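[step 3/7] fold_predict: job queued, chain A
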Amino acid sequence: MTIQLRQICLVARDLDSTIDDLEQILGIRRCFVDPGVGRFGLVNTLLAIGRNFLEVVVPVEENTAAGRYLDRRNGDGGYMVICQADARANQQAVRQRALDNGVRIAWEVDREHWNICQIHPGDMKAAFFEIDWDEVNDFHGNWEPAGGLQWEDKVDQSVTVDYAAVELQGPDPVGLAELWGKVAGVPVSRDGGTLSMAFNNVDIRFVEATDGRGYGLGGLDLNVADRDRILAAAKERNAYVSEDEVEVCGVRFRLIDAA
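[step 4/7] structure written:
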């Protein structure tokens, strides 16, 4: 079984300013707006990161799951880890492992050519875990949540190249790692004090929460081609943390020079 990270979703109070910060600091470009998120009381915009995606959603109605998440975590932050399985049977196996471990399915759509399965963030603790499948089965191409292939002319890797890792945090990182490993069906490894599991294109890292925000998607590692450009823009927008890190939308973006 192979699982590819295709999309990270952030949740914010203000869409335009957040998208502007992400474009200007990370040098990425918006590529799709999905009106379908309106059923959840949201608006959104996607940006291309390499052949993958960064989404921002904003609640525009009262009593939405995203709004409650903003309140629980005291502000903007990471929201969803959205992945693609290499086969429908493997997607359904993840779904079944979730149920076998007492984890609820929050929402799912079973189409003839494309299936979505969102695994409940309350049970997964740190974030939604979404596992999708489509019959094209191209980890670097067609992605239905971004409109198929219409995004390809928006890819710009001159500043930010791609994702390298996702950091999930909580007061019990060992328990968090065990839970995600059981549901994903991927072994968890330890390197010193760091727990992680390896998806096809990124590591999912589990760390202790030290920022006072509890469980959540706290950080993303990015392979970058122009660190200086990112840091200069971050300083202009009050997002600079260090020579290795910027913070946008309540998320720590760690910068790794691309080989």
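[step 5/7] annotate
The two ends are 27 Å apart (CA to CA).
DSSP finds six helices and 16 strands in the chain.
exit 0
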